[in-house]
Design goal:
Blueprint lengths: L3 E4 L10 E5 L5 H9 L3 H6 L8 H10 L14 E4 L8 E5 L5 H14 L5 E4 L6 H11 L6 E4 L2
Length: about 150
């Protein structure tokens, strides 16, 4: 199959299980999608992990326990189940740092980790379809997805 290009008016139509959206700073559509999902993307992106209390740290030190807490990268993707609010299964917010190739690599990794679901990629406001496709073809030969371009 080929890449299907959709306008922002067609963005919310059914047709893909996985939606990839850029962070809020790079997309107006992401804000709308977050509204439909009860602001879960925004809440999760602002979440800060709590530090251990000093009392607990003292106990850990005194007992010489090796405690490691799982750390996720600061810019890790945010994935929410959105099947109750949107016509898809998952919505993933992936930070776009103006490096198109690395953004494409992250999308491809998610795509394979989720066993190649049908996919819709919402392009950042400042990214053209030709630039995206050029970078995509450097990292993947898969071209069975749809792209949403902001108007």
């Amino acid at each position: 199959m080929a890449v299907i290009v959709l306008s922002s008016n067609q963005a919310y139509n059914p047709g893909a299980d996985l939606w990839i959206v850029p962070n809020f700073e790079n997309s107006k559509i992401s804000i709308n999608i977050d509204w439909y999902n009860n602001f879960l993307l925004g809440k999760t992106s602002r979440r800060v992990a709590k530090n251990l209390s000093s009392e607990l740290e003292d106990v850990i030190t005194e007992t010489e326990l090796k405690l490691t807490s799982p750390k996720s990268p600061a810019k890790s993707p945010i994935m929410i189940a959105s099947d109750l609010s949107l016509p898809n299964r998952w919505t993933v917010m992936l930070v776009f740092n103006q490096d198109v190739k690395s953004w494409c690599k992250e999308i491809q990794k998610l795509y394979f980790d989720l066993k190649k679901p049908s996919m819709r990629i919402f392009l950042p406001s400042n990214l053209g379809i030709n630039e995206f496709m050029e970078a995509w073809r450097l990292v993947s030969s898969d071209e069975d997805f749809s792209i949403v371009v902001e108007n």
